[in-house]
Write a structure and sequence with these properties.
heterodimer; A: alpha+beta; five-stranded mixed sheet; globular; B: about 75% helix
């Protein structure tokens, strides 16, 4: 008795449910969800490859000192080539860090020339012009390795453009650059636009001093102390990101 | 119309069983953590997939004791009820309404926990995901079965369920977007 009533009940339910409508709607919901999510993921991926999804942080064509597949861990430094703090970060932290983490992290450098440094923009232009010939890293190293030669007069910030220009051309020649092309690029609108873009991006990200570093999009705020302390802190951050 | 719905009863047994297993696992992890505060739960894989941070949150003890204890009690009742129906028990009206009320409370609680997990704790706990995943269909189908007025919705029962799941999955995706992208 209960068996027949159950059977009857089920057939009524089946007829009432109209399986096709339900199945179609369910399929539509799932299909739309898969398409939307998949579409956004694909667009996001091809747009700026990988974890550093922030276009302002790592724009297309950004200069990398080290690169890891998929940008799993990204270190971005906004720097001013004539800023003494940046130079001491370079000699005390990032030069060694670049070697130690080579191929394990993506290390991006962005320009953020400050107005208080008269040679910061010419130096940034030299770096960008070298980049046009594929030698950005070489120029970056030359500018910081020889900081004393062009950026300062003794203890004060230099404003000697002629001396700096001569030095930059010396570094360009040493890096094997085509000097005529280098000079043209230094003066080009394209190089100026790249630096302007970096400054605009930095401003958008809240950068107001140099050096400012971002580890996986998060601003690195050192607790202070000596350069060695900051170095330890930064490495701990990167190691944690690598482990995570 | 017969009051017996064996499909719903089977859902109660399976859903309740999964929920019971998840709640038990969470309770055992909680006990292990109380014994040894340094204990890292088996379900803490990284900063996002981490039941440790979820279990340590104030929301994990919403009523002053660990939530999974509620799960152990409630899911056990659900399984028992489903088994009883499969064994021939024909629940009276008041029983089905009460069961539906219980499922509704569970659903409200689970959605509160989802919001807490996404927007306060910022971590996901795999066992909790199991509880979310079973509580929603248990509530939905129990409600559909209990109230004849909802008959029109029965025609699109799984579409509604799919939409429900998709919405929550969408919220999870958006909230942890950077993490999911980093997995690609």
């Amino acid at each position: 008795m209960s068996r027949t009533s159950r059977k009857k009940n089920r057939s009524i339910m089946a007829a009432r449910r109209g399986p096709s409508l339900n199945v179609i709607l369910t399929g539509v919901v799932i299909l739309v969800a898969v398409l939307v999510i998949g579409g956004v993921l694909v667009v996001n991926r091809s747009g700026d490859e990988g974890a550093a999804s922030n276009e302002a942080l790592v724009p297309a064509g950004a200069h990398t000192l080290s690169k890891v597949e998929g940008d799993r861990v990204t270190l971005v430094e906004f720097l001013d080539f004539q800023c003494p703090a940046c130079a001491s970060y370079y000699s005390g932290i990032t030069k060694k860090l670049e070697q130690d983490y080579q191929g394990r992290i993506t290390f991006v450098v962005r320009n953020f020339p400050l107005e208080v440094h008269p040679l910061a923009v010419p130096a940034a232009r030299a770096a960008e012009a070298a980049a046009k010939q594929g030698k950005h890293a070489e120029m970056y190293h030359a500018l910081y390795d020889n900081f004393e030669e062009w950026a300062v007069d003794g203890r004060t910030t230099s404003a000697d453009t002629a001396r700096a220009t001569a030095k930059f051309e010396e570094y360009a020649t040493a890096a094997g650059l085509d000097l005529e092309r280098f000079r043209a690029d230094v003066a080009s609108d394209e190089v100026r636009a790249t630096i302007d873009r970096d400054v605009a991006d930095g401003t958008e990200l809240g950068v107001n001093s140099t050096p400012t570093l971002f580890v996986n999009g998060e601003e690195f705020q050192p607790g202070g102390g000596s350069t060695a302390d900051v170095d330890r802190e930064l490495r701990a951050k990167i190691d944690a990101a690598l482990a995570g | 119309m017969s009051t017996v719905n064996r499909r719903l009863a089977r859902l109660h047994v399976v859903g309740g069983g999964l929920g019971l297993a998840a709640a038990t696992a969470l309770t055992l992890e909680k006990v292990a953590k109380l014994r040894d505060p340094a204990h890292v739960p088996t379900c803490s894989l990284n900063p996002i997939i981490s039941c440790g941070s979820v279990m340590d949150s104030p929301q994990a003890e919403a009523f002053g004791f660990p939530n999974p204890l509620i799960g152990i009690a409630a899911f056990a009742v659900l399984v028992t009820s489903g088994v009883a129906v499969l064994a021939g028990f024909e629940p009276p009206r008041w029983y089905r309404v009460a069961l539906n009320a219980g499922a509704a409370l569970g659903a409200v609680f689970v959605h509160w926990l989802i919001a807490a997990s996404l927007y306060d704790i910022h971590a996901l706990c795999p066992y909790c995901l199991v509880v979310w995943a079973v509580t929603i269909p248990v509530f939905w189908y129990t409600t559909l079965d209990t109230w004849p007025a909802l008959a029109p919705l029965r025609r699109v029962h799984s579409a509604v369920l799919a939409l429900w799941y998709v919405l929550i999955a969408g919220l999870v995706l958006v909230e942890f977007w950077d993490y999911w992208v980093s997995l690609l």
